[in-house]
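Hi support team,

I've been running sequence recovery on a batch of backbones for a student project. Most finish fine, but this one hangs at about 90% for roughly twenty minutes before it completes. I'm not sure whether the input is malformed or the queue is just slow. I've pasted the structure tokens below so you can try to reproduce it. Let me know if you need the job ID as well.

Thanks,
M.K.
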């Protein structure tokens, strides 16, 4: 898939998670044409070691998050035009606020929500995996998509121009697919549950070599619509 104009409604993370200085973004779940092989730059030679399990509870807002889209649909909610987090109605242990992002009409690579809080390469090897609480809005599984991809980003799967080392068939992230319902549920994934989809060069997962993560809904010919809530994102042993 060709590069697309960068349409980030809030924070545009230069050279890390989506948008380059040229203002274009590769499709989050599609290949990006390049030369061949993997770049040689070691962009994670000195990763920051993470020792705090909590990544985000949204009680202080959503300033570490950004939304992105392909420009074919409409996007609303957390991080769109500096939108605030919303109440989780007391249905999630640990706090009262959650991230909420909804959209409709996406026909190209889609849209999603990304985490930019690390802003550097990190080492999460002290932990066995990552968990979160999530749900979909009314209509999830019928009129609304229920299966966002939860993508872990490493330099070897990110294009060089966006801060990674990949030069061909990029953006084949290590990923799992959520299965949302209209009720809050806790989802826990060990690192070995994340795998590439297979359209790009095989890259061994390295939990000492992460840049960030995102939640993405793929576009469709009929126009993908979704309603995503997330809360209490944390690492676990």
């Amino acid at each position: 898939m060709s590069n697309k104009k960068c349409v980030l409604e809030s924070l545009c993370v230069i050279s890390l998670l989506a948008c380059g200085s040229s203002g274009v973004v590769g499709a989050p779940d599609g290949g990006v044409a390049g030369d061949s092989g993997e770049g040689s730059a070691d962009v994670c030679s000195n990763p920051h070691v993470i020792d705090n399990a909590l990544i985000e509870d949204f009680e202080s807002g959503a300033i570490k998050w950004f939304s992105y889209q392909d420009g074919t649909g409409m996007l609303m909610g957390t991080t769109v035009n500096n939108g605030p987090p919303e109440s989780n109605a007391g249905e999630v242990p640990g706090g009262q606020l959650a991230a909420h992002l909804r959209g409709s009409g996406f026909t190209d690579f889609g849209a999603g929500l990304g985490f930019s809080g690390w802003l550097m390469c990190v080492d999460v090897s002290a932990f066995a995996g990552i968990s979160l609480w999530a749900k979909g809005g009314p209509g999830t599984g019928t009129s609304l998509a229920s299966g966002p991809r939860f993508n872990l980003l490493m330099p070897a799967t990110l294009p060089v121009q966006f801060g990674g080392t990949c030069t061909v068939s990029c953006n084949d992230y290590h990923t799992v697919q959520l299965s949302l319902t209209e009720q809050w549920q806790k989802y826990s994934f060990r690192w070995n549950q994340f795998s590439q989809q297979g359209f790009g060069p095989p890259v061994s997962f390295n939990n000492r070599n992460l840049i960030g993560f995102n939640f993405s809904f793929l576009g469709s010919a009929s126009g993908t619509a979704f309603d995503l809530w997330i809360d209490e994102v944390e690492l676990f042993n």
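--
Follow-up from support: It reproduced on our side and the slowdown came from queue contention, not your input. Residues 1-41 have pLDDT under 50 and may be disordered. No action needed from you.
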